[in-house]
Amino acid sequence: MGVGTELLLGQIPNTNAQWISERLAEIGVDVLYHQVVGDNPERIAEALRHALSHADVVIVTGGLGPTQDDITRQAVAGVAGARMVRRPELEDMIRAKFARAGRTMSESNLVQAEVPEGARVITPDRGTAPGLAVEIERTRLYALPGVPAEMREMMEGTVLRELSSLAGPASIASRVVRCVGIPESRVAELTDDLFRASANPTVAYLAGGGEVKVRLTAKARSHGDAEALLEPLVEEVARRLGDHAFTTTDEELEETVGRLLRDGGKTLACAESLTGGELGARITSVPGASDYFLGSAVCYSPRAKREILGVSQETIDGPGLVSAECAREMAAGARRLFGADVAPPPPGRALAQRASPAVMARDRASRPEAKALRLFVAVDVPEQVRDRMQEAIGPWRERLPRARWVPKQNQHVTLKFLGRTWPRLVGWVTETVETVARQSEPFETRVTGLGVFPSTRRARVLWAGLDDPGGRLASLAADLEATLAKEFTPEKRGFTAHLTVARFDPPVPFDGEEIMAADVASEPFAVDRLVVYRSHLRRPAPIYEAVGEFAFGSRGD
Question: Is cis: bond before 88, omega within 30 of 0?
Fold first, then answer.
């Protein structure tokens, strides 16, 4: 249950509900309802009573702050029939947090020390809002802060552990069969008996974006057991849908097309008109698309269709620009223009309607890479150095499996993070980085040891430091900052040569002596080129694609 009028107004998305549901599924807890209520005491109380009467556990987020509209505590107390009491230890905790931060505390902040009598308090590490755990008529209610980082800290540190213990060994797994070229009603007809006969796994349908998804979900004692329950049903659904089913692993359509082209050794080109480059952007959102995608010709006007793609005047005057004949001639023109093996007919009226300005804006928002790329400039590290790092951090990986460990192949020395970069700037960026590389001479560096940030008591980042003789790496970073400053805001923090090894959220303690003793020191290795990488956001870790590599003192490759 989310509390906050800003959620109802659509001013912020309810990402807390999605994250909580994903984590609960991992431990086998069924989520039956989501609800959102505004900052109104009567409606919050009504929503709480409804939730308490329909579930064994209720998780509420939001409304625990110090302002007048933060009223979740009082609503919980009213529903529980408890009075509000001020806890001196919470008051001391809040005062201490402000003192450590060097900030003046407003007395209104102490309202967060008031909790329903008898409630168990979940002490925050971040922020000043305590969480609550209350038993109300055999139902457990957790009230957590609405700030995502503070909520996640309490979920991971307290709520998930307690619910996992209550639920016992269990896991929920889902698989999705995705299909195209078939209406949702026909998919339902073909799988109707499976839908009616199966309680575990369950079958559900979702149509949108030109495809139909069949989601299959199973619950079992372990994730492996749940997957084993799913496998025969997944195979049967895919068999019934035939060629309409393009993936059973929730692969995007453009990923499936790319995989088939790569496996078949074929190349692809596109001709577009009404979609204005959207099809090409979707294809190139897949890492490694340059293996098979040659290009797209966006020809909107009759003249462009005629002069670039070779559409005949007879077709333009006869069947017209939006016709099967014109589409075939445009596809043939794209194959001829790019020398491709395959060129699909350009999308017609249906996709043109889908690609209206409002819908295209929504699609771009859900697929940011079609609009902007995430770029950074880095120095590569030899594989033997990364192998040594993996050996050294092995014990910590075992002790901290939920940390975000940087995959070995992603370990680079980042000199400049550019972030979201408009496609029109990519060529300028690579040319600029090439210029810096040509003006640089090779040198050597080495990994010296491990460190944590900001402290061993509350580490958020584990990093490996590099020797920077004569400040050469820092100088490279400064040169990149200066030459790219025309389009990218310079970093305010000073550059420190390092490799990021892992990130921790919430923070974790480290033994300083154990860190100092870690044997990660490497032999010197050469720094002789700059690489521009594109970051594709994926789970569990991003995929980095090199879009330019430039040797020092020479032209780029």
Answer: no
Residue spans per domain, the chain = 2-167, 171-247, 264-368, 372-551
The two three-digit tokens of residue 419, written as one number: 């972030």
Name the strand (E) or helix (H) holding 157. none
- Angle, helices 41-52/72-80, rounded to nearest 10 degrees: 50
Structure tokens belonging to residue 210:
């030109």
State in Å, rounded, how far the first CA of the chain is from the last one. 54
How do the residues of the chain divide into helix, strand and coil, expressed in percent and rounded to 5? 45, 25, 30
Question: What pTM value is reported for the model?
Answer: 0.48
DSSP calls for 179-195: EESS-HHHHHHHTHHHH
Per residue in 508-554, pLDDT (tens digit) is 888 888 888 888 888 999 999 999 999 887 777 888 888 888 999 85
Within 10 Å of residue 467's Cβ, how many Cβ atoms?
A: 15
How many whole angstroms separate alpha carbon 296 and alpha carbon 158? 52
Could you give the count of Cα atoms lying within 13 Å of 118 in the half-sphere of its Cβ?
A: 12
Q: For residues 289 and 373, what is the distance between their CA atoms, to the nearest angstrom?
A: 14
> Is 37 exposed, middle or buried (CB count within 10 Å of its CB: 0-12, 13-18, 19+)?
buried
> Cα dist. 334→66, 257, 286, 316, 328 in Å?
62, 18, 21, 17, 10
- The class (CATH top level) of 171-247 is alpha beta
Given 3.40.30.10, 3.90.1140.10, 2.40.128.50, 3.40.50.300, which CATH number is that of 372-551?
Answer: 3.90.1140.10
Across the beta sheet with 529-536, what order do the strands follow?
A: 412-421, 373-380, 529-536, 543-551
Give me the CATH topology for the region 2-167: Molybdenum Cofactor Biosythetic Enzyme; Chain A (3.40.980)
Is residue 223 within 8 Å of residue 170, measured between CB atoms?
A: no
Cα 91 from Cα 170, distance rounded (Å): 39
Rounded to whole angstroms, how far apart are CA atoms 307 and 326?
13
CA distance 154 to 494: 33
* Interval 496-517: pLDDT, tens: 899 999 998 888 888 888 888 8
Phi then psi dihedrals of residue 467, to 5 deg: -70, 135
Beta strands 57-61 and 139-144 are: parallel
Residues of the chain with pLDDT under 50: 349-370, 555-557
CA distance 481 to 489: 8
Indicate the CATH number of 264-368 among 3.90.950.20, 3.40.50.80, 2.30.30.90, 3.40.50.300. Answer: 3.90.950.20
